[in-house]
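Schema walkthrough. Field components (list of strings):
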Amino acid sequence: MKIVHYPHPALRHPARPVAAIDKSLHLQIGQMMDLMYEAKGLGLAAPQVALPFQLLVMNITGDPLKRDCEEVFLNPAIVERKGIVDDEEGCLSFPGLYQKIRRAKTVRIQAYNLKGQAVEKVVTDLEARAWQHEIDHLNGVLFIDKMGPFARLAARSSVKSFEREFRALQQKGDIPPDLEIEKVLAALEAKS
Ligand code: CO
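Field assembly_structure (string):
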């Protein structure tokens, strides 16, 4: 498992709800947490590791020693948004790219935990931003889609270089062609 970078097709593939909490899911979650810490992120969504499922991991402190801040959510949804705040945001699928993004200041979330229990919580500021960003990933939405005209212009050359780099790796054979990736995603969905 590794974190895929834009424009990997998994990032645009809408995620399926998680249907079973089993051993392989626990294994995937452990690997996602490790990758998130390694990349110094606060959250990671399953599509970012090429898994087409509604699953995300988070540790808003970013500190691997603070295990009590680790959170795992299945099939999450934002049910209420309040306020607006512009702040800098990054994404592990666009390493090094940071831009101001407008988000709701406070959101109410519903999801399931690893015990299969429904959970609801209200989060604000950084945590609300992380949630909105990660849930977007589950819908195939990326932070570049949320940029205003100025941020979009500022990010343009960086986005283009991610595209060039990805296509070059595909040409070298280090990354499979898009069609093959789509087939793997479809096979993963069929197994679930
Ligand atoms: Co992201």
